[in-house]
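INFO batch 0412 | record 1 of 1 | parsing
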Amino acid sequence: MSAKLFWKQFWVLFTFSLIGVFMIIPTIEITLSQVLKDIPNKPDLPLAVLAGLSLINPIILLIVAIVIAIFLTPRLGLKSHIVENMARKTKLWPSLRSDINQAIMLGMTVTVIYYLFDLIFQQWLPSSFHLNTQSRSLVVTLGGIFYGGISEEIMMRWGLMSFVAWMGWRFFQHGKNRPKPWIMWLSILISSLLFGVAHLGANTVLAPLTWFIFCRMMLLNGIAGIVFGWLFWKRSLEAAMMAHATVHIVITKMVWLKAMV
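INFO prediction complete | emitting tokens
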């Protein structure tokens, strides 16, 4: 790969990632304001500065994920239509269009599972976890669509899942042929578990951590991670992104329709 192509791919993916990062700033500010209420010695910094500082780690992780996956994904048979478009001058829209229906359908399936779980077990959940128009506001939804749908997918699928798959491929197949299905499934499961763990901070902000909340977090995010990982493996990074974004769009739509009834 030429240095010119590498930097072109890097900057396109990084720019998309930053859009997602910036879109979650309002949500972070809301969360920080709630957390700071319970802290006796609050840091003497504006809320916007604290929110900006909290984004340093995600940005570093995004850079690492993008760089790693640009080199690893072609060897594993994993792809991004945007990256392929820059490398091979393929037509972008027909490739994206072929993934839309399946991505949206699977995203809606994940949403129904999530919604039904919280509906059934609502009485065991703290009120801060209840789905309502405040918890699914436009600001929260946009943050989920762009940060979850773009930035998290680049970190967890494009970067982490690709790296785990590459490690398994190198160790068990010595880098020969394409990774076997069981290696890909292992990478999907591991990245899905870590995807669930990555939501620990957001869950502990809402309420004290209990075994029920922990299991809910791992189960629902694990299911979503498996679906998004499978789409990345079988379709593309963009398919995983579209499915992830669909979850946030549909669940907000369901909550608002319920509130209107």
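INFO post-check: The mean pLDDT is 91.
INFO record closed
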